Structure formats: C-alpha cells, structure tokens
Amino acid sequence: MSTPRKQVILGAFLGGVNHHTAWWHPEAGSQIDFGSFEHTARTAERGKFDFFFLAEGLVLRERAGKIFDQDIIGRPDTFTVLASLAAVTEHLGLAGTINTTFNEPYELARRFAVLDHLSGGRAAWNVVTSFDAFTGRNFRRGGFLDPADRYVRAAETLAAVRELWDSWADGDVVADKESGRFLARPDAGAFAFDGAQFDISGRFTVPRSPQGRPVILQAGVSPQGRDFAAANADAIFSPYGQLPEAAEFYRDIKARAVGAGRDAGDIKILPSASFFLGDTEAEAVEKYHAVRNEQVTGQTALILLEQLWNRDLSAFDPEGPVPDIDPDPEAPPIIQGRAFVHQDRFATVRHLRAVAEAKKLTLREVVLDQFERGALVGTPAQVAEQIDSFVQGGGSDGFILGSHLVPWGLDEFVDRVVPLLQDRGVLRTEYTGTTLRENLGLAAVRSAAE
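User: That's the sequence. What structure does it adopt?
Assistant: Structure tokens below.
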C-alpha cells in the first residue's frame, strides 16, 4: 500500500516594512488601505489557503538614528485588521503577530478569544518576543528585558493565556429551560496564575472559543527558541527554504516536540517564500532577477550588511568587494528595529567572504546571492513541482507565500499554480473543516476543566 501524499499547507502574507515589497511598481497598491488586506485575504480564500498572516511593526526602523528611507511606513493594528477580515471571509484562518513583552496575558487572551468567536474559530497567534529598549520606549519607561529573560516572559505569558482560555469549558454555558436564557455555571471563568512574571486572578470574560484555543504560531532559530516553539507551538515558521538545511531543521523541531511529550504531527513547519512565474522557465528567471535587482539596491545591500557588521559601511562601494573589516558586536546597534537572525556574526562574515571569493561576487551581488528568503521560480508546473517535492521530501509541511506586488501578486499564483496542486491531490478543492485547527490537521484541544 502506498503512503498517502502529504497535504500542502498554504499561508499568505501581505508584505509590510521590508525591502521585498516593490512599492515603486506602477501597479502597487496601498500598504494600509483596507482594500489591500481584503483583496489578499479573499484571493487566498479563493485559492483554498489555510490562513492569512500579518507580521508586526511596533516601531519605525532606523539606521544611525534616522528612519529607513527604503522602508514602507505604516503598519495598522493587527486585531483591527483581522477582525475586519473576519467579516469578509468564511474559511480562511486569521493569524496575527503579537508581542509577549509589551502586552499583558489578560488582554491577549481576551482579544484572541474574541477574534476566534467573531471568525467562527479561525484565529491564530504568532507569539514573538522582544527585549530591546528601542522598541520598549514606545510602550513604557524602561520597558525592555534582559535578552535572557525574553523567553521566560514569553513562556509565562503563553501559559497564563492558556489558563484563561481554559477557565471556560465547553459545557459552562447552558440553556435554562424555565427562563429561556443561556446561563453560565457558577465557577465558569475563574482563574489564578502565580509566576515570576505575573500574579493575576479573577474571572475571564469570554466563554470558550470555537477552537478551544486559537492556533499558536512561533518562529525560533536559536536553541532556546527551538525548544520554546517545539514545546508550545502548533506551527513554526522555518527560515530555511533550501534542502538539506530545511530537512535538518524539520527533523530537529519534530524531535524536540517528541522530547517535550508531544507527537511529531502536533507541530507544522512552514518556511516563507516568494514566487516568480513565467510561460517559460527563462521568462520566470528573467523576471526574478529583474525584481531582485530593484529590491536590493546598493544602499539596501549596505544596510543589510551593516546590521551584521554593526558598523557604518557607507564608505564601501556596493559594487566593490565585501568589507575586509571585522564586525563590532560590542558597539551600540547601528540598525534599530530589525530582527537579528544571525547566530554568529563572525562565522557569517567568513561565509560571505568565502562565497564572494568562490563566485567572484561584489558586495551587492553576495547580498543578492545569500540574503534570499526562498524563491519559487519557473513555469506554473515547475513551481507546483517545487512545492510538492519540497513538502513530500521532508523540507516542510507547506509554505507561507508573499508577493512583491501588493495586493495583486497573489492572484497569479492562485489562478495558475493552485489548480495544478489540486490536480496532484496535495491541496484541497474545498474546505472540509469548520475551524483553522481542523483545516491544518491539528488535534482538537480540550480544557483542563473537561
């Protein structure tokens, strides 16, 4: 008997504050107008995607104290956008990135539980951490954490939120035949949480939501981040879009999940990817290189390397060699507001120099070559094959897809690639679940009170 083919999970994101978005394109739309969010979400639902994803931008990013002039400015409130999208979609999951450092458990639990009710069980929370004073100054005086404490707070925040969600059981709201009203059981919603970060108690105001608990998403690359995600997340965003690194990450997270007492299938692995389609492979490759060359200008290449070097590199020629000076990790950050993803500055610099020497690349060319989040390039049939092979080969459970063109870019993928994935039998032709958790193939969650 042949092994059933894995179903491909698809998420869609609308680009925000980054250099990937081609804001200069004559067909590009607004980054903040509701119509852009609505079009992307409706298109994703038309393509039977699992969820729509919003990243988070809590501060305007800076270089040496000045706002990035190549960034898109404007990131609306996540809950407002997702609640609005709940009214114009029926099946699509709605995932929001919300920080654990600058929010309180009660507020987080209530907002996501309400979103889950409003959407009929389609809410998801991408749990992220932050510790820096640059971000914290927007929230409270001294509002930052020691880097070592960010996962301590995140773990307690998530534990407290789950306790609030679980304070209501499915049977806590019952129909009273005499009065004809729905009544809550006497102890419904009662909670108490006592930890190093929080000491809270009371009654949670929102009855148990349709999913039991909204879906938890996370992204963790460091050993600490991987452990946190493997123990807590329903899905994790992978930074690896190429084999064999992606397969190694996949195996590692699944093994950590089992080590945390979970089943390997309890957590899904999802890298992000862009896509470039053409009627021929050559046409797709030409489009890819044209867009990438516009995205990674000389200035952008220098800024991406400045975050790694933590030095002012403006004196270096983008069309010249990779800088021959060492990083300065002890200096105050020259780039503020960007997530730092490199585990070892010096090892990464050595790798970039080796690549540049081996391939005879300039500074900008090595950024183009190495700072790619993952691109699916080819004809629609080739891209469908790339996605299917990657998932069946153990690189991931699916992809989070975004386009450089907001908000129209996803249409081409839905019109030309989705039917081919459906023909292969790896993507649904109709939604079968009523909640995001069901559509992702995740087990139902029961409360401790049941």
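The CA atoms of residues 213 and 236 lie 17 Å apart.
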